[in-house]
Specification:
2 copies of one chain form a homodimer. By secondary structure, chain A is an all-alpha fold. Helices cover 65% and strands 2% of the residues of chain A. The A-B interface holds A 12-14, 16-17, 19-20, 23-24, 27, 31-40, 42-43, 45-47, 49-50, 213-218, 231-233, 235, 270-271 and B 12-14, 16-17, 19-20, 23-24, 27, 31-40, 42-43, 45-47, 49-50, 213-218, 231-233, 235, 270-271.
Chain lengths: 489, 489
Amino acid sequence: MTAYDALMGFTRETMALAQVAGRLGWDQETMMPRGAAEQRAEEMAALESVLHARRTDPRVAEWLTEAEPIGDVATAQLRHIRRSFERAQKVPADLASALARTTSRAQGQWAQARADEDFAAFAPVLDEVLRLRRQEAQALAQGGDLYDALLDDYEPECKAADLQAMFDALRPHLVSLRAAALEKPAPQGLSGQFDAAQQMQLATLLAQAFGYDLDNGRLDKAVHPFSSGSGLDVRITTRTDERDPFNCIYSTIHEVGHACYEQNIDRAYLLSPLGQGVSMGVHESQSRIYENQLGRSRAFTGWLFGQMRDYFGDIGVSTEEAFYAAVNRLQNGFIRTEADEVQYNLHIMLRFDLERAMIAGDLSVSDLPAAWNDRFAADFGFQVDKPSNGCLQDVHWSVGLFGYFPTYSLGNVYAGCLHAALRKDVTNLDDALATGNTLPATDWLKDKLQTHGGLRNPQDTITHACGHPPSEKPLVDYLTAKFSDLYQL
Amino acid sequence: MTAYDALMGFTRETMALAQVAGRLGWDQETMMPRGAAEQRAEEMAALESVLHARRTDPRVAEWLTEAEPIGDVATAQLRHIRRSFERAQKVPADLASALARTTSRAQGQWAQARADEDFAAFAPVLDEVLRLRRQEAQALAQGGDLYDALLDDYEPECKAADLQAMFDALRPHLVSLRAAALEKPAPQGLSGQFDAAQQMQLATLLAQAFGYDLDNGRLDKAVHPFSSGSGLDVRITTRTDERDPFNCIYSTIHEVGHACYEQNIDRAYLLSPLGQGVSMGVHESQSRIYENQLGRSRAFTGWLFGQMRDYFGDIGVSTEEAFYAAVNRLQNGFIRTEADEVQYNLHIMLRFDLERAMIAGDLSVSDLPAAWNDRFAADFGFQVDKPSNGCLQDVHWSVGLFGYFPTYSLGNVYAGCLHAALRKDVTNLDDALATGNTLPATDWLKDKLQTHGGLRNPQDTITHACGHPPSEKPLVDYLTAKFSDLYQL
């Protein structure tokens, strides 16, 4: 057996175990009896410790030295394995385990603090998480920029400076679009009865309409919508709110975007480093293009309007155009996950700047609420009324996800690029979308991007799909055209 | 840290990983999308290989040498760990992995062969399973009896000769009881509409009535009823047949017996060798006493009759006594799992003798169908009509479970002993059972047996609970009294 084959065999087992850990996470959010939490924590810790030992196994270093890759695929596999091994080597085992323990505790404390509107109760553990993540960033950066070191986990080769330039280019367009739209009369929202069981039936219909394969996945309810797993077992969750069916509908389409990316990767890459989405930003480009550019398009919402009336009867709006306006209406709001397409990235910019300051040591946890609230008022023009609408709204920082937020905007920008290229290649896409048929779009995405998994780095993945490097311009053009038309600006 | 503490810490992680493997098994039977099977096989194999490496880790031998246990609990923990380590050491890794691969393949082939009524299609893989298990038995027995070596996996310290004596003592009583009962007019069976969703509601009610804690478990549907997991996460499954509600009812109560044993073990033993049921026979004693001595008692079926009428309306029998007779009626039948209390152990005797002959090399796989059918006609007085009613009915041999069947009868014998002791201690038990209250019985079982987990060896576990060593006499007395009364013999 060659060193390359030995390494790939070992890696395949490690990835299979990582899938098991992921499935335990899914179980925890969907099926686990509530009294099992304490035992589950030990099960997860045992599995994580096995994974950590494998990721830092000295044999990996030997195989990496000896392996002679033949062809692009083998070269890419080795690039991923080397990256992951070098990262794992840099972080001391006791720091990794302190982070795992602390973030697990912090997540519960965050949920409680958010329910109690009590930031002070959460501050000490967040402070500890921040301290450990800064320590980890120092270990990873080895003298370089701390934030870049963390960002690299989620978006390999991306730098904060690039993101800053992207945000600077986006901001004026978003701000002026918002100002213009909010001066116009607000479109009407939905009203009616939206039975939870019927929402789940509609969610299944939508998942299948976007190409999600239920033979290799399943759809369940959970508190937070998510997608979990790679390869032949990619599961999604959604939630229902009987007053607001859009929550279920667009959460489902969003997670289907993530899940289809995983399901559509070349089966030859199964349980190998290439067999998963290549980065968070590219992943988010898939969920966002499914959700927004396709799912919130005039053509698709025209079809969806008919479905809504079939499922729920009178929904409070009576034309396809009024439904399209309701789906896409701009509103003042505190919550990132409920934001419209125009304002969403403004929420991200706020978090990006605050978390960079925290990682740099320029913003302390105790000063975070005031900093958040000041910045929110400056960016959005009204005051945060309570912590759950402010800096306690997102789970991310509690679980140590510093450097993750900007990949959401990167995903939006990538989705803008992909959508422009898709429209160029598939000129009659709206005819299909108007009948609920997403296949011309999802097949294009599968062929151009999804099937390749981790073969290219994130930026090259987008470049390969679009035919040119990514920029924010297609997103700006798309948003300007869509909302100018919708609001008659 | 002492050697004992180090060993227990290591063992705790291994047991946590074993729980994860068990939960994957549960997922496979209940939740897994069907297209995921191939990937799941690799996930399970990776986890099994981690477990095997831990079970044979040379540090365990060192710790076992150095550990100085203090007290009964520590001594018992070491006894289990030594046993498991020595067993794992004796089996070469390539044999263990060949067994895992072959039995996984064989299970699918068995299911297909059963569906096709085609024993010949199954014979080659069964032959391979038998060959590998005999090889394993040779490695384990080290010159001793092969069948005893396999039996020891399921019922530590039990010998085939003991079981033979037990069966010899049981057989004449069972045969004569059956003969006498079958001469009498058969009691009426149920008829009516038994909606599957309502059966599941009743199953939940019954699970709770027998003390199953849904905060540390859950009840789902699966093709085969089973209980899975130990400690804080013990899940059960059941099934429904719209023509036969007893299938769901008594499968559920049976699995609840297994699950309550696991749930009721002293929490101090969590994720340690003492924290699981001590043997298959003792496990089966719990499922059987819940199902039969309690669940099929006149007092409890009186209460159940009322529930059945509430759930299903007219069920075809109109008195508590007629319902009791329907629950307990003796019938000719091919299928072990559907057998009544009298005939069940006759089905086991047939399998015990045939599998001993196979392991001894005295019966070949190709001769199995004829041997089964001849023996069945001799023992039951009528001819097997098709393989799915004969030697293809049970999954056990396909997955290598030779030596497992007799633990079912051992469980019945143990249940007989426990029931006699319980009745002596709790004289007014029927008053409670007649109101659907099982607590006086289940509390007694918890206190006398379940809470102790693996503290004592199987035989001593029963002796401790009953106050005297087990014998088959209480079971014979119970069956004779119950069926003489019911059939007016």
